[in-house]
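pasting for ref
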Amino acid sequence: MNDRPHASWIDDVAALNGLEPEARALVADLQPMTLEAGRVLFSPGAACSGFAMVLSGVVRVGVNSDTGRALVLYRVSADEVCVQTTLCLMAGLEYSAEGVTETPVRLVMIPAARFDRLMAVSRIFRTFVFQRFGARMQDISRLLEMVAFVRVDSRIAQALLARADADGKVAATHQSLAEEIGTAREVVSRQLDAFAKSGLVRTARGEIALLDRAGLEARASVT
């Protein structure tokens, strides 16, 4: 659904402050859209029709195997770019992953032709895209290193510590944790049972409570 006319979204993106007049004219008429959580933005094999500027909310990008396994590659929030979309637009490739709105998302879709023109005429826009593309590639490299070289129990401990709130509670299912660290749900369930028997966590439906943060930190540091 389109929001009311609102060209000043450009001024709300700090990285685009001072956008050159020609570049600003290319996008000033584009209107933000609000999408509900769970909306599929792209899927493997699809062509890319535009560049999504996320203004608020979170888009989850991941891959799924034929066996039902899944891995979250990264998330896109405000002031970030999607590696998949950038590659598709710049190299003429099809999507190889799936993008889904994890929360309600507000974004502006820049058509492919305008994206190409922006990259050609705007130093500020090019800097925005390339800097964030590079940072995202570093995140993906760290994810691959973790999946390849870090033990599953350490990865689960790291994920729990990263996602815990101030009360030491993690709102997550075994499946969502499995997708975060690149393993099977059954593996996560077995490891959480082992953590619970060791007094590190307490599990309940859809929630995990951290009982021994120091113990989990010790597990997280083991590779």
